[in-house]
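Re: that backbone. Tokens:
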């Protein structure tokens, strides 16, 4: 059995069922790892991925799970009656409410707030028997692709602590990569699952809109989704099946086909891509991509070709201005207004980067109507649909920038190979797939850059064709082993 801190979720559950591993021992190993990694003595200072840890409550739940497995005593019928994730330690992004715990979103404007109920995906994880034992850091109100706040400090990448693990699910990504837990919840409204997955060598699935439930009012924001971060494709598929499906309190959720899981129950590995047509785009027509990222992308393309996939160059022909217009009008009419509401109307209560985001988005909302925004979105959606005509999936880098500095808020923009960009979000390639948010997108690692920070690619499927991206992801996991700190 591999080191307990990097044991996959599926392997852990298998060991529990065989009574080869105690859920309590597993949890204790993870708690010890958190304490060591967040001590000043280890490495270049603490990773600082955790908001809180509730060890006593979690140990009680793990002990209950241990007793249930002991009663089953390996009997297949008894084991089949147990919850699917019984005893599995899982961390929760602080954005996802855990009843009775803080609900501050990393914002001083929400200091003292607590959650009256579990977020729907948290409730589904509880129902599946998962042991929730702590929450992870985010940027304020989940509005950045780095993770730092005045409340929680700077969260650092466990591969190289001079750099960020990404955002907004940066704490979750850093925690899973560092061996704090096999799974952590995440969300994605502009890349907040996939960018941290790329920077931390993880698997991050952006489900199609409506696949997983959320809470009002932003459950009705078509860009959003709530997801999980994992170290393996199998774990990501398993986690998705736990949280997906219709929810009575979220009318944006969509049904699963004939009651089936949106992902395959078994993954075919490298053989699964033989005969598939994979469209590839190195830059989506407009992104300025770092050499480290392109090297990883080319390695992935070569691996797929060697496994029998047909590789076809595609060009969506997007422009950064088109993407900005679509997204910022959308954010200006929805997300920025919600952030201003949460801040009690006082932008001065927000972090500098959050203030900048709200001001910029509201500027777009004053310039363009919501209907203008829909027209901009439709142009991006049509371009992507045209590019994917005749291919099974499309492959593109996840972040054009190989890494972002941990201590930088990028208030003055970001330097890129072809020149400075005023908006640092232009260094990531995720946002078009929130605009076209019925497309499933699986982010997987493609290597490690010169800084020691992993780089990644996105596998994009046709609307609600979730199984296709897991099929390709499982092949890449076999062909190009993912980075690990173990």
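Recovered sequence:
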């Amino acid at each position: 059995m591999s080191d307990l801190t990097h044991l996959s979720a599926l392997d852990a559950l298998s060991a529990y069922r065989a009574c080869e591993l105690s859920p309590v021992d597993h949890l204790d190993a993870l708690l010890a790892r958190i304490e060591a990694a967040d001590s000043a003595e280890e490495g270049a200072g603490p990773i600082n991925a955790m908001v809180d840890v509730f060890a006593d409550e979690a140990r009680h739940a793990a002990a209950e799970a241990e007793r249930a497995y002991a009663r089953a005593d390996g009997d297949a019928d008894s084991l089949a009656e147990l919850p699917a994730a019984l005893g599995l330690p899982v961390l929760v992004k602080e954005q996802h409410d855990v009843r009775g715990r803080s609900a501050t979103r990393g914002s001083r404007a929400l200091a003292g707030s607590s959650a009256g109920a579990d977020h729907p995906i948290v409730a589904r994880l509880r129902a599946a028997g998962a042991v929730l034992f702590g929450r992870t850091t985010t940027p304020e109100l989940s509005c950045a692709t780095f993770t730092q706040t005045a409340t929680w400090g700077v969260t650092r990448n466990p591969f190289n602590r001079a750099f960020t693990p990404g955002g907004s699910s940066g704490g979750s990504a850093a925690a899973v990569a560092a061996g704090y837990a096999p799974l952590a919840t995440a969300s994605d409204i502009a890349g907040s699952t996939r960018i941290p997955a790329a920077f931390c060598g993880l698997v991050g699935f952006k489900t199609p809109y409506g696949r997983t439930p959320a809470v009002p009012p932003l459950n009705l924001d078509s860009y959003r989704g709530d997801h999980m971060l994992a170290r393996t494709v199998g774990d990501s598929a398993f986690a998705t099946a736990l949280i997906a499906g219709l929810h009575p309190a979220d009318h944006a959720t969509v049904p699963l086909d004939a009651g089936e899981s949106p992902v395959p129950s078994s993954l075919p590995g490298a053989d699964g891509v033989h005969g598939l047509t994979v469209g590839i785009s190195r830059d989506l027509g407009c992104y300025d991509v770092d050499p480290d990222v392109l090297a990883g992308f080319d390695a992935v393309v070569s691996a797929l070709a060697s496994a029998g996939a047909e590789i076809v160059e595609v060009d969506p022909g997007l422009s950064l201005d088109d993407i900005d217009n679509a997204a910022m009008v959308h954010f200006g009419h929805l997300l920025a207004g919600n952030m201003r509401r949460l801040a009690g109307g006082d932008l001065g209560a927000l972090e500098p980067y959050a203030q900048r985001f709200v001001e910029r988005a509201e500027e777009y909302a004053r310039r363009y109507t919501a209907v203008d925004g829909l027209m901009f979105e439709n142009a991006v959606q049509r371009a992507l649909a045209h590019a994917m005509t005749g291919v099974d999936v499309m492959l593109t880098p996840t972040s054009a920038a190989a890494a972002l500095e941990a201590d930088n808020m990028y208030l003055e923009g970001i330097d890129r190979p072809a020149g400075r960009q005023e908006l640092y979000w232009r260094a990531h390639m995720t946002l078009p797939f929130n605009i076209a948010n019925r497309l499933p997108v699986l982010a997987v690692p493609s290597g490690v850059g010169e800084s020691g920070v992993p780089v990644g690619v996105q596998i994009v499927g046709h609307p609600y064709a979730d199984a296709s991206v897991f099929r390709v992801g499982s092949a890449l996991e076999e062909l190009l082993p993912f980075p690990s700190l173990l």
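The CA atoms of residues 214 and 303 lie 37 Å apart. The longest strand covers residues 441-448.
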